[in-house]
Every structure is written in structure tokens, then in C-alpha cells.
Description:
Strand order of the largest sheet: 2-1-3
CATH topology of the domain at 41-129: Potassium Channel Kv1.1, Chain A
CATH class of the domain at 41-129: Alpha Beta
CATH superfamily of the domain at 41-129: Potassium Channel Kv1.1, Chain A
Mean pLDDT: 82
Number of strands: 3
Strand content: under 5%
Largest sheet: 3 strands, mixed
CATH architecture of the domain at 41-129: 2-Layer Sandwich
Shape: elongated
Distance between the termini: 120 Å
Oligomer: single chain
Low-confidence stretches: 1-6
Order of helices and strands: HHEEHHEHHHHHHHH
Amino acid sequence: MTLQKLPQQNAAGLNDQQANIRELENLFDNEEQESSTRIAAPIADFRRELQNLRARRYLCDVLLKGTEDGSFGIPCHRSILSAHSEYFRTMFLSGMKEARQEVIQLHNISRDILSKLVEYCYMADIPINGSNVQPMFIAAKFLNMTPVVDACWEYMEDHIDVRTCLTLYCFADSVAHKNSALAVKAKSLALKHFVALSQGAEFLEMPKYTVQCILHIDCL
Length: 220
């Protein structure tokens, strides 16, 4: 009787072993899927670490200098600059001599503005105010940093008033086009308040080019 039951017991044991193997295979499959799960690190932490590397001059491979820089400069990483500026990307990936230079002088950008633009490349944040918005716009446009250019336009459009409309009209007309949203808004304010504006001290102290821009506005 015992010999007759052995095959059945062996078959049952084999089935149990196969079931255990399948269970282990499923377990390993699940572990493999979990191990390949993408971990999204906070972008702010990533940027902060890059900024810390720059602050300590770790792995920096280029030094930028503005108009007022003497022996000092702004340490940077070419890869970070290239990721945010088409100007630098073209420079570093081309056969230009600047692609191999350790120090790059930017004669048309002040150190203060250049420092803020570099800060933006690392932290995606830039302080814009009435004093720096125009030189910031010009520098960002030169470096092909479109998000900063757009932010400057938006700031000027949001902060235009009777006190700034004449200056902003001439600025918009000189760097863009007189039909731009900024120029149109500034022109409307200038036409509305021109009599009062023309009697103010600011109007009398304006550069010749600015006055010529105003006098060429239609309907005056």
C-alpha cells in the first residue's frame, strides 16, 4: 500500500516546488520593477547643489568677466551656461578660440548684470527692478537668454506709468519695434499726458535722441 501512494506524493511535492518557484519568480520580478522606479529629486535641491559647487569653485572650467572686472571674474561651468544661453552654447561647441579659453571677457555687459544672469543660470531666479531692467534686457538679448528677455518685457509692461512712458517708448522703439506692446502702451500714455510731460524737468533733461523719438510720434 505504501509503494502505491509514493507516486502520488511525489507528484504533489513536485507541484508544490513548482508553485514555490513561480512565487519566487514573481517576487524577483516585482523587486526588479521596483528597483527601476525613477526617483524624482527636487529640482530646487539640484540647482542649489550646482550653485554650491560654483561658489566653492569646484569643477568650474571658465571665468567670465564684465566691463568693470580687473583680475577678478565670475567662475562658471560651461555646461550650465550652454544649457541656458544659445550664445554660450554656440561659442563653446564651435571652433571659436573662446571655446578653449579659461577667461572670457564680455566688454558690453557690466559685472553686476553679468553676475545676476549667471545666478539665473544656476537658480532660475533673477532680481529685476526699475534700475536694472533695461541693461538686463539688452544683455539677455545679446546672450540669447529668451526667458530673461521675456521677463524684462513683462516687467516693463507691468510697471509703465506717466513717469516712465517717455523713456520706455524710446527704449522699446530702439531695441524692438514701435508696434510692440510696450511701445504701443507707452505711446498711448505719452500722447495722453504729453502737455504735462513736456513741461516737466525730466523732459527737459532727456537726451537728444529721446526727444527726437517723442517728436516723431504721430498725432503730436
